[in-house]
């Protein structure tokens, strides 16, 4: 039987869906069998059901990814005060939310003083990437370093690093916020070297690169770490006032005004 153009289009979509589901035999046989049985009119309904299955699978995957990410649930683009950020920076964040940079294992490095919104912005991008089906992990740098140190002491560091490989993006929050011991600096360097040109790293830090010798304590290690990070990277500078400082200032003014009125 000659197939109409409509049947070919719907049939191709059905086959694609079945391949995506890993149902290779059904993908090979189903459309052909329906056409041979003179039932091509049933194919649009079948495609609709498969689309529902695809949507539910996507939603379940997003739920699993979000739970595994450890991202703060409230730090999304919906709650990010974009009015405080330069328009060019906001546009760059929105571009990153598309996720194209992940295919080249590009890193994103966010610098600025404490309280300027670096962590919130990186988390917002992380949430957007999860919506696109990408695996993200958010960790305070100090906490992750301690976990890897424990794995090293248990002779389990290679397995711990492989486990981190399942994440397309690793968000290391507050790099350099706490002074690190030589052993901690070595673990951090090992992690960065392991992901180099393989997986993306997001970093937030209040220390510019010129101050990173405070982290690695050694000029050679510092230079090597920076070299790996910036080779494929996007640099974001949050040159805005601290949100927490502004909030405290406004609250203080309101309190003084209320006291004056009283």
Task: Walk me through the topology.
Blueprint: H1 5-20, H2 24-36, H3 43-69, H4 87-96, E1 107-111, H5 118-131, E2 136-140, H6 141-153, H7 157-164, E3 169-173, H8 182-195, E4 200-205, H9 213-216, H10 219-231, E5 233-237, H11 243-261
Helix pairs in contact: 1-2, 1-3, 6-7, 6-8
Characterize the structure shown.
- With 262 residues, the chain is of the alpha/beta class.
- It folds into 2 domains: 5-60, no CATH class; 70-246, Rossmann fold (3-Layer(aba) Sandwich).
- Helices cover 58% and strands 10% of the residues.
- It is built from 11 helices and 5 strands, in the order ααααβαβααβαβααβα.
- A 5-stranded parallel beta sheet has the order 2-3-4-1-5.
- The protein is elongated.
- Mean pLDDT is 89; it is low at 1-7.
Give unreliable regions as ranges.
Answer: 1-7
In total, the number of strands is 5
Rg from Cα: 25 Å
Strand order of the largest sheet: 2-3-4-1-5
**What multimeric state do the chains show?**
single chain
Q: Would you identify the CATH architecture of the largest domain?
A: 3-Layer(aba) Sandwich
What name does CATH use for the topology of the largest domain? Answer: Rossmann fold
Corresponding CATH superfamily of the largest domain? P-loop containing nucleotide triphosphate hydrolases
**Share of helical residues:** 55-70%
Tell me, what's the shape?
elongated
Give the SSE string: HHHHEHEHHEHEHHEH
Tell me the strand percentage band: 5-15%
CATH class of the largest domain: Alpha Beta
Number of H/I helices: 11
Number of individual domains: 2
Q: Give the overall pLDDT as a whole number.
A: 89
Structural class estimated from helices and strands:
alpha/beta
* Major β-sheet profile: 5 strands, parallel
In whole angstroms, how far apart are the ends? 90 Å
